[in-house]
């Protein structure tokens, strides 16, 4: 497949099974360079689980994840799962590849969390500064003895720049958790950007935002995409936002992909209307 | 700006403390009660801060401190006993197997290194455990170490259950003060570096820390080893202070005492730990001493005052602190010039606000 070279992210037959619960079932998809792709679906459809598989939080039961053409996660049903496995995929991978989330972040995949996970006892500034740590070349001795002062200074400048970009520079010395919800979400995005990703995963970035903030968010996502040459994969429930920003959309329902395509195709897809959009209009 | 001022303030304070210590060394009897409190205060400050690095700043609930102090103390003693004195110290073990001796400063460094090496080894399996399990495992480790060092088969190295003595010790307050101050300064520098921030991130949210690229296993192990390094140095200082060392004294009680100090001072506050250490030893060794001796007023004997009553009162005070001031003295704040100024300004504002009403 020559086309796969353009894929920033590709999932093949990803199945994630917790005991008897199949949270994601045989999900294959791809995100191309420079795209904004959305993942939608009703509550409990398995969207966050898919993110957790990509970022190394969970080891999938079966399937493979490629990042820039290289496998970063790979597994087949083993041990207890050999018997319990309920996925459809006939494809059996014979290799196990699992990496801790920090390794995957280092490769250039950053994420935000659906239920905000900021560092509670730290300021807004420190929250972003921490995400610079993985690109630092200092060891604990040189850091203790302040031999990395130049690097530190550069990191602080970069942090301030990011905070300005997301409009939080005025709050930089506030405790992260003292911010209103919408700003906390922006802070999470700034923190993710500080790891210098090429692929950004956003898990419901508009949740808890008011209509005005949601509207601003659309412009903001486009802005950071252009500025940092990102590829963006976003989970979102606000349909207006999804339809406005996405190039393509995947729809999950009970762990299965029931549709994929452009926003217009999705809006007119009968499966989607039945499973998801229809339900919302009740 | 404020940072620079804070640093200058801290340095001035430190210089003043050095002068004070030098004066005290001249005017106070070296074995008096005040000196005991101050020397113990210095030594345990270091141990408490090292425990805080782990429990307060990295969020790892570990109870191995006494074990690492023991390792440090023994390492120091074993390596620094003068060769000429070994025959008399190791009288039951033909003078022991170590037949050289290194200077005291090298002994202190080795105490830290050996302690850290043990931490590195047990860190592999133990640090995968979560909260309570980690506490149990490290506590178990400390108890095993205590038994291990008393084991007769290791006698030629550890002198079995007999004590080690005749190694170099100190007499002045200046010595433990300077060593503890240097070590605590290094810990503070670490905490405020990018690695310290990573530790705090792990404490606040492991999942988010990992997602931000912080290698959990690596950083936890590092915090564990560094904490143990300084606990080892603290153990060596304690050995020096006592002039003899015996493994059986390093019971888990010791760890609980240090944990108590850390909690009283505030998890995540270095200055809190230091302050709490001095208060703790001043109260337990000095201010509450009178409770232990029967007191007669005329013919009437004051009730309750007798040997051991001090411990009762002390425990009640501790319980009250833990019940009603769970944040400890300092919470997770530090004493600094800017902090004091803020407090002062707030007081003044309140005062002027009251006047206007
Ligand atoms: N660690 C886990 N252990 C067991 N079951 C899990 C686990 N994580 C997720 N699940 C289950 O997987 C299913 C999918 O959950 P997931 O959080 O991925 O849904 P979602 O699409 O993100 O939903 P929402 O829109 O509510 O965020 C749910 O049934 C959930 O209970
Ligand atoms: Mg979700």
Brief overview, please?
The complex is a heterodimer of chains A (282) and B (357). By secondary structure, chain A is of the alpha/beta class. Chain A has helices at residues 47-54, 80-84, 101-107, 124-130, 140-144, 149-165, 181-193, 211-228, 239-245, 263-268, 270-281, and strands spanning 7-18, 21-32, 36-40, 62-67, 70-75, 109-111, 199-203, 231-235, 248-253, 256-261.
Describe what you observe in this structure.
The complex is a heterodimer of chains A (282) and B (357). By secondary structure, chain A is of the alpha/beta class. Chain A has two domains: 1-108 and 198-282, P-loop containing nucleotide triphosphate hydrolases (Rossmann fold); 119-196, no CATH class. Helix content of chain A is 37%, strand content 23%. Chain A has helices at residues 47-54, 80-84, 101-107, 124-130, 140-144, 149-165, 181-193, 211-228, 239-245, 263-268, 270-281, and strands at 7-18, 21-32, 36-40, 62-67, 70-75, 109-111, 199-203, 231-235, 248-253, 256-261. In chain A, helix 4 runs parallel beside helix 7 (181-193). Chain A is globular and about 55 Å long. The model of chain A has no long low-confidence stretch (mean pLDDT 90). Chain B has 357 residues and is mainly α. Chain B has a domain at 28-251. Helix content of chain B is 69%, strand content 2%. Chain B contains 15 helices and four strands. Chain A binds chain B through residues 55, 57, 100-103, 105-106, 110-111, 113, 117-122, 126, 129-136, 138, 140, 143-146, 148, 152, 155, 191-192, 195, and chain B through 186, 189-190, 193-195, 197-198, 200-201, 203-205, 207-217, 222, 226, 268, 332. Bound molecules: adenosine-5'-triphosphate and magnesium ion. Adenosine-5'-triphosphate binds at residues 18, 21, 23, 41, 43-49, 114 of chain A.
